Amino acid sequence: MNDATPPLELRISRMLPATPEDVFDAYTDAEKQKIWFSILDERPGIVEIQVDLRVGGTQVAVWGPDADTLFRETQTFLEIDRPRRLVTESTGSSPDGMTMTTRITITFDAEGDGTRMTIVQTGFPVPEIRDFFVDEVWNGALARITAYLEGQ
Q1: Cα torsion for 131, 133, 135, 136, to the nearest 10°?
Q2: In sequence order, what are the residues at sequence separation of 6 or more whose Cβ sits closer than 8 angstroms to the Cβ of residue 42?
Q3: Up-side HSE of residue 59: CA atoms within 13 Å toward CB?
Q4: In this predicted structure, what is the pLDDT of residue 8?
Q5: Contact, 119 vs 102, CB < 8 A?
Q6: In what order do the strands lie in the sheet with 46-51?
Q7: Cα–Cα distance for residue pair 150/35, rounded to 1 Å
Q8: Which residue in 36, 20, 10, 18 sits closest to 107, CA to CA?
Q9: DSSP for 23-77, written as a single string
Q10: What is the pTM assigned to this prediction?
Q11: Which helix (H) or strand (E) holds 106?
Q12: Which of 98, 112, 99, 86 is nearest to 25 (CA)?
């Protein structure tokens, strides 16, 4: 019997109202991200994003409601196949000092008049963190990207 537990992963998929190129660009372009990151917030917070979109390059995002409550994420681009696929290694930290590294694979598939964006993220340390990412992080991000694309 093997005692090794498989890595915890999430899989989430959403239809978005734009072409794969537009969805890919909304997800990877720093200026577009700065817009959708805060699009549904009642009060603007802090959002700083830098993107070097090339294999081996990074995306660094720092955000939060105020300077004392900042989240930080650095994604290293492992694979870029615009507009079909993006693979990154993500290391994030929360204001309480918790850090975590995961692998994120995103596909952008044309479907009807839109794009099915599918995210697979692996490497969660416990099911509760994975579930938080499904319920809060990714559902929130996808709602924001959808609102951004609908406003274009």
Answers
A1: 140
A2: none
A3: 25
A4: 92
A5: no
A6: 8-16, 114-124, 99-111, 85-93, 71-81, 58-64, 46-51
A7: 13
A8: 20
A9: HHHHHH-HHHHHHHHTTT-SS--EEEEEE--STT-EEEEEEESSTTS-EEEEEEE
A10: 0.92
A11: strand 99-111
A12: 86
Nearest one of 12, 47, 43 to 117, comparing CA atoms: 12
For each successive 10 residues of the chain (152 residues), what is the average pLDDT?
A: 70 98 97 90 86 98 91 97 98 94 98 97 96 94 96 87
23 vs 108: CA distance, rounded Å: 8
Sequence letter at residue 53: L
- Report whether the peptide linkage leading into residue 6 is cis, meaning its omega lies within 30 degrees of zero: no
Dist CA 26 CA 146 (whole Å): 10
Residue type for 49, please?
Answer: I
What token pair was written down for 93?
A: 């930290």
